[in-house]
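TASK: fixed-backbone design
INPUT:
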């Protein structure tokens, strides 16, 4: 790999298959040799995953943008008296899914929303059940650790019992959002009205114990320190050691446009995005899949990220709202042909998969 002398020890550890330490991770975030960092992460990706890059055909269903949390980094959430606030009816949600089903390869739904000030847990549950009963062939990945913590608080139920009810209503996996940075300092400053770091992790732990897989994520590039980024990765790695229930990890760069926080913080650079992607692959040695989420990274950066440790492009994403409200400049959806072309141009093999990374069709 031709590491600079300062990083020869880290390269040697990676090539021997040894776990990197907190100190290693912090040092890597100060590395300026982006070519070496990408090559090292790409080596690990190749050894762990081969040259397959996963994608799926999916639809986002954002049931409501009314939210009691009102995080400083979010441009999606609205107060209920905001002119742009909305709350889908059951008929509207079913209509959205029905429209998406015009694509014959549509396989899964991604259902996430705001923390509505008046909806009960039973209301959310009813919407989920209606979607599942109407479209039983679709795999439903839905809600985040933040939403599930909210459901427990408004219902008086335990997280365990909330998850049991959601699973019975048709939920098959949990979305990875809401983790942000798993630091009490950061969360108190930016999102004090929603799940704590420990609560988010406990939802994932409980879900895994019930056989419900989850995703994990990190929102970076705001007020967190580089040390807090590494600590975030280490907390996810520790829980994966314990439960083995995380399916994929997603790097979310903070998008400042239209947010309160964006008035004082600029957007991350492509260098920071690629560096964070590579370090995530190196630190999360027990995660098989690392996602280059094209919606937030933009398509060109996500394509380059396939050389920095990523092996997952997410999907076609029918009508994504949350991140585009924050100023994402990527398209609101990609065709399957476009995703296949992007992956092939990177020298990889595209593979249409279901939401559990089972390959449906590989494209040579």
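OUTPUT:
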């Amino acid at each position: 790999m031709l590491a600079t002398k300062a990083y020869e020890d880290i390269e040697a550890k990676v090539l021997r298959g040894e776990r990197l330490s907190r100190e290693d991770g912090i040092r890597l975030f100060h590395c300026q040799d982006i070519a070496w960092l990408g090559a090292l992460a790409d080596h690990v990706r190749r050894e762990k995953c081969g040259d397959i890059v996963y994608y799926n055909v999916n639809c986002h269903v954002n049931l409501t943008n009314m939210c009691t949390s009102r995080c400083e980094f979010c441009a999606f959430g609205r107060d209920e008296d905001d002119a742009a606030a909305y709350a889908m009816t059951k008929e509207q949600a079913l209509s959205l899914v029905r429209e998406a089903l015009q694509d014959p390869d549509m396989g899964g739904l991604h259902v996430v929303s705001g923390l509505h000030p008046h909806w009960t847990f039973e209301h959310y549950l009813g919407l989920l059940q209606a979607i599942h009963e109407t479209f039983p062939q679709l795999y439903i990945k839905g809600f985040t650790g933040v939403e599930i913590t909210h459901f427990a608080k408004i219902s008086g139920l335990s997280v365990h019992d909330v998850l049991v009810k959601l699973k019975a209503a048709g939920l098959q996996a949990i979305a990875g959002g809401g983790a942000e940075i798993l630091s009490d300092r950061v969360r108190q400053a930016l999102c004090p009205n929603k799940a704590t770091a420990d609560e988010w992790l406990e939802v994932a732990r409980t879900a895994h114990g019930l056989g419900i897989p989850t995703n994990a994520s990190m929102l970076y590039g705001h007020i967190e320190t580089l040390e807090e980024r590494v600590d975030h990765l280490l907390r996810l790695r520790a829980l994966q050691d314990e439960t083995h229930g995380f399916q994929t990890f997603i790097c979310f760069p903070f998008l400042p446009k239209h947010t309160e926080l964006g008035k004082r913080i600029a957007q991350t650079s492509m260098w920071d995005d690629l560096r964070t992607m590579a370090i995530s692959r190196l630190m999360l040695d027990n995660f098989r899949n690392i996602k280059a989420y094209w919606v937030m990274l933009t398509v060109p950066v996500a394509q380059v990220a396939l050389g920095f440790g990523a092996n997952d492009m997410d999907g076609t994403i029918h009508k994504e709202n949350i991140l585009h409200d924050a100023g994402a400049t990527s398209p609101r959806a990609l065709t399957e042909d476009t995703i296949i072309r992007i992956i092939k141009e990177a020298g990889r093999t595209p593979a249409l998969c279901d939401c559990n990374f089972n390959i449906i069709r590989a494209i040579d």
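COMMENT: The mean pLDDT is 93.
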